[in-house]
Amino acid sequence: MIILVLVFFSTQLKHYEAPKIKEISQQEWLSAQVIERNNWLNVPKQAFQVRFHGDIKVMSSSLKSLGWNEIKPNAWKDVWNALRADEKDEKVPFIPTTNNGKIETVIYTKRIDDNLFALHLWERPLKITSSDQHLYAGYVSQNHIGKNWGLTFWKNSYNNDAILTFIKAIEKSNQLYYSKSDNQFFIQVREN
Predict the structure, then answer these.
(1) Strands 184-189 and 50-54
(2) One-letter-per-residue 3-state SS of 122-171
(3) b (16+ CB within 10 A) / e for 87-120
(4) Rounded CA separation 33/112 (Å)
(5) Mean pLDDT of 59-67
(6) More confident: 30 or 84
(7) pLDDT tens-digit profile of 124-144?
(8) How many domains does the chain have?
């Protein structure tokens, strides 16, 4: 089973094509309908609750200043570490999820008690006409340590209230702000 997981994650590298970037207006972005993350079988898994427009480095520095950690997903390494991990370890690995066969661009995590909250973001093949910044979409999960197939890792579990933990961080940020529409949070960088 582990070999199948590793092979699956490697196939995206073999068939990678740079996506064509579609330009949209700021209003189109803010009024976009909810899209869902599709798992590796192309089955809708959960709605994207978060959309981000801006420099991901600003998002990173803002969240880090509020106690969040940045993870650059690496499926091979994360699965390997999960094979060797024990739930008592300080660093239990976080195995990335997929959307249309691609793992996250970046993951931000914050541990609170026995839970690990995570913001999963994928870069989107969209660009706002009046901006050079990238667009991202994702969701927030609440995770607990789980064991499957001999792996020990942070297991993703959907919880509607998990998004509130992340939004509280955005509210404390001096660099980021959000607006809400249709159960989606649109996060942007504050202009100086």
Answers:
(1) parallel
(2) EECCEEECCCCCEEEEEEEEEEEEEEECCEEEEEEECCCCHHHHHHHHHH
(3) eeeeebbbbbbbbebbbbbbbbbbeeeebbbbbb
(4) 31
(5) 95
(6) 30
(7) 999 899 888 999 999 999 887
(8) 1
- 3-state SS, residue 47: strand
Find, among 48, 172, 65, the residue nearest to 105 by Cα. 48
Question: What is the three-class DSSP state of 103?
Answer: strand
The answer on pLDDT for 154 being more than 80 is no
Quick one: tokens of 17?
A: 């094509």
Give the HSE-up count for residue 154: Cα atoms under 13 Å, Cβ half-sphere. Answer: 24
pLDDT at 61: 96
> What is d(CA 162, CA 160) in angstroms, rounded to the nearest whole number?
6
The answer to whether 48 and 126 are in contact (CB under 8 A) is no
Bridge partners for 178 per DSSP: 187
| Residue whose entry in the numeric block shows the structure tokens 């993870």 | 71
Are the C-beta atoms of 95 and 78 separated by less than 8 Å? yes
Domain with 36 in it: 2-189
